[in-house]
Amino acid sequence: MKNLKTFFFFTLLLLIGVSAQAQLKNYPAKSSELTWEGKKVSGGHSGTIKLKKGTLIFRGKSIAGGNFTVDMTSINATDLQGENQQNLNAHLKDKDFFGVKEFPESKLVFKKIKKLSDTSYQIWSDLTIKGITKPIDFVATVKNNTFTTTLKIDRTAYGIQFGSGSFFSNLGDKTIDDVFTLQVKFSY
Q: Distance between CA 72 and CA 99 in Å, rounded?
């Protein structure tokens, strides 16, 4: 009888230990920095955009999931000032680009994660811009309670064709690259 009690006691301890390791922990954003850069034949523009909400999910010390919602109405060119900045911001918010009146948010939802090292992960996600969802993958670094990555996004996959040499000819130096970058720094 004593051996049976001991067996059940150790089995219970083992189950509690396994359960504790399998628990997921959510870490909402404490702060974030999102910067974007778009290029064209004659130069380019850069700026910021705000994270509306974001969460990283951990199993133990490893990322197990995550999701981010970006406030598209906050897009702001920081390489210009005054009227030029206002004009570019208005154009980026217009339907030619992100159509923020109809689509005020963009979302990134992690789907699959592969740990590459103690601080590095390959992440496959769904990215939604202008109501269109497409898969995207990237490598992220997690170190000192900070998640960082750079996304390379083909805007034409989300219906943003303005100034694209892939869709229009004879644009000359007005041609805008199809791919823009989004640098993400997310502290939790």
A: 9
Query: Closest Cα to residue 50, out of 67, 26, 72?
Result: 72
User: Looking at the predicted structure, is the pLDDT value of residue 7 above 70?
Assistant: no
Which phi and psi angles does 76 have, rounded to 5°? -145, 125
d(CA 176, CA 30): 34
The amino acid present at 157, given as its one-letter code, is A
Burial of 67 (0-12, 13-18, 19+ CB in 10 A): middle
* Amino acid identity at 48: T
Q: Is the pLDDT of residue 5 over 60?
A: no
> pTM (2 decimals)?
0.85
